[in-house]
Hints:
Order of helices and strands: EHEHEHEHHHEHEHHHEEE
CATH class of the largest domain: Alpha Beta
Bound molecules: adenosine monophosphate
Number of domains: 2
Radius of gyration: 19 Å
Number of strands: 9
Strand order of the largest sheet: 1-4-3-2-5-6
CATH architecture of the largest domain: 3-Layer(aba) Sandwich
Number of helices: 10
Shape: globular
Helix content: 25-40%
Strand content: 15-25%
Distance between the termini: 48 Å
CATH topology of the largest domain: Rossmann fold
Amino acid sequence: xxxxxxxxxxxxxxxxxxxxxxxxxxxxxxxxxxxxxxxxxxxxxxxxxxxxxxxxxxxxxxxxxxxxxxxxxxxxxxxxxxxxxxxxxxxxxxxxxxxxxxxxxxxxxxxxxxxxxxxxxxxxxxxxxxxxxxxxxxxxxxxxxxxxxxxxxxxxxxxxxxxxxxxxxxxxxxxxxxxxxxxxxxxxxxxxxxxxxxxxxxxxxxxxxxxxxxxxxxxxxxxxxxxxxxxxxxxxxxxxxxxxxxxxxxxxxxxxxxxxxxxxxxxxxxxxxxxxxxxxxxxxxxxxx
Length: 289
Ligand code: AMP
């Protein structure tokens, strides 16, 4: 496994690989502090791609003022061990100066799919994501890029960007990995106190309740409002939970589905704060028309 810090170095290595091999290049972009969820993306890349490139970069552009950029957890040593175990070939760990040597004057901004959920509660977040991911795509030039559905809106945004800008990369969405008790794995889970960690189970529990409620029903036999109330009621049983959003939308358009009963896929998307820690989770479901 090679660890590279500069764009020039990364490009040279990918180019050298392509000169000698006609296998595909797979790419997994992350912000590090790797857990089994990240490892599952790396394993999928390992099984589908000839060369596996992992990037670890805490991207300042996607954090708003007062968010956790400064205190975002970092552990390069452990990350390299996880990467090695997953069979990564190249780890790209650029500095902020390497990625943004001068103030950024170009922003990639995706509309419509960014208007709700995290797009609404974290203004500018998806501009930061789309900009860094398009930069990384230009640097790595992968054939496939692997993204977790834990960040389902991010997947929708990246897929839209790839479509609109004709980027020659296949986006591979990957399922959410969870702890044994259901909590979605996240680098931010380390922020939680034992009490918050226990109460955070209401996210996955409420999604499971919604799933049970929908089971066997057609899209016209329930409303998004009904589902939202069911989910909110359960989350609110946790005294420390403060709901940022709990919404039911069609996926991947992320539009309300109320008046078109033609949807086949919906998402129940949650963002809930416990103290200073904001957790997200979601469930994507196929529904009969
Ligand atoms: P992050 O480092 O949080 O920016 O995440 C990097 C990639 O890992 C993104 O594509 C995430 O969606 C994905 N990811 C994060 N948590 C999980 C999880 N629990 N299961 C699967 N993928 C995940």
